[in-house]
Write a structure and sequence with these properties.
By secondary structure, the chain is α+β, with helices and mostly antiparallel strands. The protein has one domain: 3-Layer(aba) Sandwich (Cytidine Deaminase, domain 2), CATH 3.40.140. Helices cover 27% and strands 22% of the residues. The protein is built from 4 helices and 5 strands, in the order H-E-E-H-E-H-E-E-H. It has a 5-stranded mixed beta sheet. The longest helix is centred in the first third of the chain and has 14 residues. It is globular and about 45 Å long. The termini are far apart. The structure holds tetrahydrodeoxyuridine. The site of tetrahydrodeoxyuridine has 14 residues, from helix 2.
């Protein structure tokens, strides 16, 4: 992992496609308060892609991030058994935007630990395994 997605380290085609879908859905962003337009695309085990964008609210704290919007859409449309095999995040602001901590925790329920997560970083597009982004995710294993 650590693929920068630049000339020396191109992303593979499937991840390029996922990133393109994330960029495209960012055009739908409802972000009048921050102006930060984010898109997320999830690749499912079935090969399907489900996308989401951020939806802000005047009370700010009720804002839904693109990643969680995509996840909720995927479960709603395809059911609770979905497994996510890759994630792409993009924004139209030319800024770094790795998935926020809340989104990592929510994604953890459905994402395979080795799934690549592609996101804009300070040094360009970066790819990390999900388990690297959220080590020691909270799980509830009752004894
Ligand atoms: N945002 C996302 O959609 N995903 C993230 O991982 C981080 C932040 C959105 C929320 C808000 O609408 C805007 O970006 C600024 O924080």
């Amino acid at each position: 992992m650590g693929n920068l997605g630049n000339k020396t380290n191109p992303l593979d085609r499937a991840l390029e496609e996922l990133l393109a879908r994330a960029r495209r859905v960012a055009l739908q962003s409802y972000s009048p308060y921050s102006g930060f337009r984010v898109g997320a695309a999830l690749r499912l085990e079935s090969g399907e892609i489900v996308t989401g964008t951020n939806v802000e609210n005047v009370s700010y704290g009720l804002t839904i991030c693109a990643e969680r919007a995509a996840l909720v859409r995927a479960v709603s449309e395809l059911g609770p058994a979905i497994r996510i095999t890759a994630v792409a995040v993009a924004n139209l602001n030319g800024a770094a935007s790795p998935p926020c901590g809340a989104c990592r925790q929510v994604l953890a329920e459905f994402v395979q630990p080795e799934a690549p997560v592609v996101f804009p970083a300070a040094d360009g597009v970066r790819t990390m395994a999900f388990r690297e982004l959220l080590p020691l995710a909270f799980e509830m294993k009752l004894k």
